[in-house]
């Protein structure tokens, strides 16, 4: 490996305890002689994190240098919920489940680095993907002087076989199913799971059913619909069926509803920030339900101008998150505008869950802008004078009438 600058002395590694990050841990020790600090985040990925501590200890990491933290509440409250206030979807469909987790991990790595006096941070993202960008934009956005180590771009290993040989030579445990190449790559957290690679690389071939981890197939979902009510306070979901819940508890409950009814599957051929297209199978059961519900309560409480402006801003906001610019001033500016719009986005939404879909069937709010008195087809007792519409239409038609007059006089294509 070609080294630039001085070798790091102490490195905070984003560590899952899996094979790849275990290899990275040992590589940091052997390549640089660096003291390694591991950070493992419980984001609701559904895995037991105890083994990560044992593996780090076995690799020679000091007990005081092992950080394993339950950040599920922080994740949903400070990252997922702000994103859902924006109704953010990338390329029209993707709910950004992987993207939104990276700023939190990067932030904690930088905080831990400051705490323990580390001069470098390290991630396990490959040189082809988006995550390398997301992690590193986060690092630099929080500490412009931090040294960043990206092993997949730097080391001399050319193949999975080389990695396994390195693991075996250093006594790193290799699960039997890891001796060949995994059938696909998986990332998961409380918001979603994503699967990419191998059996999924041909976008013309349907994903095998075994790829799906968070949902049952819609055709296997119950034959009877289920009705639920979600409560909102200032744009954030706060209750289900009248029961107040913390952010992470609420999303966990929505995930269970989504799994049961086969809601939240997505097969996407997306445009990565680094330039290539990739095929991903995403499952976002609770998030899919939450998006339908949030848009439902906004229907009642947002003014037309604010609602339409939000929809115009949303693609830019979603792209910023997808590309890794969570800590950018433009994302924070957009967030301020979005959060301002949510002051009266409170009330309840009723949904019907059935066979892969969440259907909005009712919404109510003390701040609703809907007026049955004005919109009714019955006698509105003077609440709305329909004759006013004539002047409104003529004023809006003025420029069209001028254009039509010219076209009739000279011909439209003259």
Automatic annotation (TrEMBL):
List the protein's name.
Argininosuccinate synthase
Enumerate the residues binding ATP: 14-22, 41, 124
The record lists the catalysed reaction(s) as: L-citrulline + L-aspartate + ATP = 2-(N(omega)-L-arginino)succinate + AMP + diphosphate + H(+)
Q: Which residues form the Arginosuccinate synthase C-terminal domain?
A: 184-401
Per the record, its GO cellular-component terms are: cytoplasm
The family assignment reads: Belongs to the argininosuccinate synthase family. Type 1 subfamily.
Q: Start and end of every Arginosuccinate synthase-like N-terminal domain?
A: 10-173
Question: What Gene Ontology terms describe what this protein does at the molecular function level?
Answer: argininosuccinate synthase activity; ATP binding
This protein's encoding gene: argG
